[in-house]
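Incident log entry.

Two folding requests arrived from the same account within the same minute. Monitoring flagged them as a possible duplicate submission, but the sequences differ. Recording both here for audit purposes.

Request one:
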Amino acid sequence: MPEVQLLDSADARRTDLPRVGSRIDGSIVIDDQAPVSEVFDPATGHITKLVAHADSATVDRAVAVAAEAARVWRDVAMNRRFAILMRLRELIVQERDAFVDLIVSEGGKARPDAQGELNRTLDGLDSVFSAPVSLQGAYGEQVARGIDSYSLPHPLGVVATITPFNFPVMIPLWDAAAALVCGNAVIHKPSPRVPSAALLLAELIEQAGVPEGVYNVVQGEADTVNALLDHEGIAAASFVGSTPVAKHVYTRGCAAGKRVQALGGAKNHIVVMPDCDLDFTADSLVSGAFGSTGQRCMAATLAVAVGDVADPLRAAIAQRIPSLRVGPGTDPESEMGPVISRESQRRVIELIDRGVRDGAELVVDGRSLADERDGFFVGPTLLDGVQPGMAVYDIEIFGPVLGIVRVATLDDALALIATNPFGNGASIFTASGPAARRFQREAAAGMVGVNVPIPVPVNSFSTGGWKASVFGAHGLLGPEAFRFYTHQKIVTARWPESGAQSMGMAFNPGR
């Protein structure tokens, strides 16, 4: 489960680097004795700051503060919560450049990718503005004589949100918006790779009018996560990350009696039919595979070429890759940045090596970029002849690597998707309506695209996959988010008429 390595005592005492702390009850908290880890600029490889981890005592304090604040926040009128989140949207737009700078400097994204993340962040916030309707409940009149029944959505209390490095603003705000509009208090644990955007978001949430203590940030890694999952004061946990960690979070959280949604990894199959628009498809695959440096759970990692489209598809993709501008996000010309860490860089290169050893053909080799540049760069890489059983097919690479899988028929392509343990997304590129309709009905994935490389839906729909890509019954955003962050309380009520008992009218719910 560890994502970063804690520093030894000598490194931890360094005073030349700023420290990033937690934020509890509106104040920054940094324990000088707390374990710390390094935050890098992925484009240079330089350490830029240290992040101080929250221990169990700090988590206890955050939960106590949040529990007290939750009792106040849940009683805030819905129209007031709505107005606060509208104000939050305005503040995020005002601080757009600050967020983009943090995404670039700590996450390594090219600036267009960072700006795209901000756009999707706002889309997710917009999706919760249906709350006055979505949280109305339901009413059943005269379910029995003189008796009415109705449901009331109630907040859970204190919830934990645990988010990954690859979307340091979007996913935290998606979680925060849904949890807050439902009346919950939140303790957010961001990735220690990208700790700073979470603090800016928390500051803006309070500026918008959310009372201090309702939204708190605790920094850390595995120990901090486990402290949140074990804490009896937390009612639910939402997680996005790799499948092994998602399984851990789900198992441990459920064992502690919590409601848990844990979104994991993926191997997304993009099926390419012989009748596709080849240029459009090749452009889409390059964008889907190498956008965000391939570091997204919806990356287009496997191009499943059906029949005789394989060779022209391979040529079209290979022709486009050299024109991709790879560089630091601070360069306005860059279209693809580095991966997040030295460990990630080495892992991606080793998986490419294994792919070649397993028999895949290396069409475009991006490994040399690691030696040519500072920072954690890997160039766009294309492999052909990828098959199940190869590491590059079976493992989520989370880097700029696209594999071509050759199959004879659409039946074969659908069988690959059905037997893969992941089920996050799948797409088809075709000019055939019947093929597309069959694909959308039969593809074993939670999000399906037709002539779309990244089939994440608009945010009025819920986002989430199937199989090992998700643990728990709920997805992010949309109706699923409202259901996840609320209990349903069912009330059955009867108001006897005055004097009814004196008239001898016995209570009989079945009348």
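Request two (distinct sequence, not a duplicate):
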Amino acid sequence: MAGGALPSDAFVLFGATGDLAYRKIFPALQALARRGSLDMPVVGVSRAGWTVDQLRSRARDGIERAASLDEAVFARLAAKLRYVDGDYRDAATYDRLRGALDGARRPLYYLAIPPSLFATVVGSLAQAGCAEGARVIVEKPFGRDGASARALNRALHEVFPEPSVFRIDHYLGKEAVQNLLYFRFANAVLEPVWSRDYVQSVQITMAEEFGVQGRGAFYEEVGALRDVVQNHLLQVLALLAMDPPAGRDAEAMRSEKLRLFRAMRPLDPREIVRGQYRGYRDENGVAPDSRVETYVSLRLHIDTWRWAGVPFYIRAGKHLPVTATEVRVDLKRPPLAIFEDMPEAEPNYFRFRLSPEVVIAAGAQVKLPGEEMRGGGVELVARHALGEGDSPYERLLGDALHGDASMFTRDDSVEAAWRVIDPVLESLAPPLVYDPGTWGPAAAAALIEGGERWHDPQVERTRPC
């Protein structure tokens, strides 16, 4: 429990009949019920015209699809499940909700609904007397740009104080992402070299072999820059580059991330390449003259004493050769080339594979057998695990129920991240076309400075330690 916060005593899911609830939230609720962390009413709210029995059937089906159904645990969850049907704009809906809460004083509201309805729902909760002492979870996207993010924050703060607002990004709940944070600050080996004195450059790649998979209409609204760079990958960058927090509490961690976001230089349109895979415009829901990017690569700078002069490269795209998310930190070469082959040798590096495997590795040069003093690269695997542990939604919902905001995004950090991205959201040239199965437009290679290159993630062949 964070800072002595009292746990929530009811869970209310707006959008209970939707896809997110079906695929992610109901399986997470069963997992929480299995470990005894859900001893409270669970109220689904929707305007689908359903009954509670239909909602229970939907929950069962979603759990069976995502995980193994535990009949005994599901029976306990189903017994706590209630349903309120009604329009989100109708005051009577919230009167029925108040009755379903049955006197709960600290409910947690999950808004699994379009952001355009956030202000309507939170305002109606306040008018119905359901907001006092409550917490609220909102899903990304947290706006489409800096201005809309600020407007969304104002709407939330009219009802809920910032400590009661939990902006959920499931990516931060992933085991591999949390392990990245732990590895950085639980080991003294990194700190002496984790700065501009030894680091040459940092690359973050999020590659997907598949395309938009029938979600063309959705992708037309976001694109790669908004969909994964502004939130997921900037958050990974913050965990890589932030200084150690000044305490163990959530606010110390989030304050360090904010300091890092504020030190990021706003993107220069000359340091970004946008691409669109060939055939994207033939997808259902995609405009025939679409200018939406399915690939983006960029060079980013952090103006702190630790990182000044170190380029950070980020790229993300669909229909690339592999599906993998990986961080590569290249170290500077030794100051003198004592051996003849040193100028051509690959630099030392750290590699963090975040998905689909979990790998932490270090690259070094060792002497090859023989009389000549010649070397070759080897990779030392520090950790290789295939298990994911708790699902991201299980972990994050559990944290929110107990008031632990460590892995949630604060309002000022959201706005600071948009400040970095805003300069390149509009007035950009049309995306460059690239063929599916390639690493994006050839122009992306020019972003890498100093004669270096992109390091392409490969299919992981390392065996578990």
